[in-house]
Specification:
This protein is an alpha+beta fold and 330 residues long. It is built from seven helices and eleven strands. Strands 2-1-11-10-7-8 form a six-stranded antiparallel sheet, with no helix packed on it. Helix 1 packs antiparallel against helix 2, helix 1 runs parallel beside helix 3 and helix 5 runs antiparallel to helix 6. It is elongated, with a radius of gyration of 32 Å.
Length: 330
């Protein structure tokens, strides 16, 4: 480590808050004004530590008898050598020492999409959120039109969307230096739009071609869209770790899908979300081959036979349990 030396005061997320240049060793650090680096930290001592060279000409950080000491990786140290990467804590202050010869990382490609910031993505995101909430309410509305109901849905959905995006923007500010509220709103609005298109498209295809699996397992696709949304939130915060976040999103998808299927099996005995297709559309949409009345009645008879058999078996098992209870009572 060669002079001059740079003492970097770090935030909790690793960002450099201040960088002080000192031309030569030793460097005294503490709260008092006779130090080379003054710490505005009540948890640090007046003369807390000193940076100097040891007998092997290595740059070391040595504690000067402070109460809280030097903390490195959660452990208190009386002294330690510095290599430019070590982040230590003096009181509540995190710092790092680097020399003028410290190698910097190569320049990375700019993936921050500076042209897609601010009001434009925020406006598009809010419009998509509003469209999704209003269309969902209209499709499920069975009551006479009431403007106040749609206004309440619109206000609540926009408030929830702003809260969701605000939480991600706060995380972006803490761990990525910039909030990017507009982009997080756009990600949420786009995800809701994709969910809406999937629900409508899958319902039409399921009804038109008797593809019941599209609706019976539609919640798994919705879960996949939600995991993709979280993935894009994460890479907006840290754009240089897409593989890590992709693995995390995939694990969330697999775990959520497994829990959803297990919940369906426990509650209904089937892996599907629905036991039947509940979407009804105009007959003109239907393209699947029609079945005759005889086929329908034959299928209904099979269902009746199976239901009667299951009912008889349940009655026999219930009677057997009652006999066992009577015998144990005697």
């Amino acid at each position: 480590m060669k002079a001059p030396y740079f003492i970097e005061i770090l935030a909790r997320n690793g960002d450099v808050l201040h960088r002080h240049k000192v031309s030569a060793l030793p460097i005294r650090i503490g709260r008092s004004y006779d130090n080379d680096i003054i710490l505005d930290d009540a948890h640090s001592a007046a003369s807390h530590a000193i940076i100097e060279t040891d007998q092997h000409n290595q740059v070391v950080l040595r504690d000067l008898g402070s109460k809280n000491g030097i903390v490195y990786k959660g452990r208190k140290q009386s002294s330690m050598s510095l290599d430019g990467e070590a982040v230590v804590r003096l009181g509540h202050t995190r710092l790092r020492v680097r020399g003028a010869d410290f190698p910097v990382a190569p320049e990375i490609a700019d993936t921050t999409m500076h042209g897609w910031e601010g009001g434009t993505p925020a406006t598009i995101g809010l419009v998509l959120i509003a469209l999704f909430s209003c269309v969902e309410t209209w499709l499920s509305d069975v009551e006479p039109f009431a403007l106040i109901r749609y206004l309440l849905v619109l206000a609540s959905s926009l408030a929830a969307g702003l809260l969701w995006a605000g939480v991600w923007a706060l995380a972006n500010r803490l761990f990525g230096a910039h909030a990017r509220m507009g982009r997080h709103l756009f990600i949420l609005g786009s995800a809701l739009a994709v969910v809406g298109l999937w629900r409508m498209g899958s319902s039409v295809l399921a009804y038109a071609w008797s593809a019941e699996s599209l609706t019976r397992y539609g919640n798994l696709v919705t879960l996949g869209i939600a995991c993709a949304m979280i993935f894009f939130h994460l890479i907006t915060i840290k754009p240089h770790h897409p593989r890590r976040f992709l693995i995390a999103a995939t694990v969330m998808l697999l775990a959520g899908s497994g829990l959803m299927v297990l919940s369906n099996l426990q509650s209904t005995g089937r892996a599907a979300d629905e036991l039947y297709m509940s979407v009804l559309l105009p007959p003109e949409v239907r393209h699947s081959e029609d079945r005759s009345v005889d086929q329908f009645l034959a299928n209904a008879a099979k269902l009746k036979t199976g239901a009667d058999g299951a009912r008889s078996q349940a009655v026999k098992e219930g009677a057997g349990n009652d006999d066992e209870d009577d015998a144990s009572g005697d």
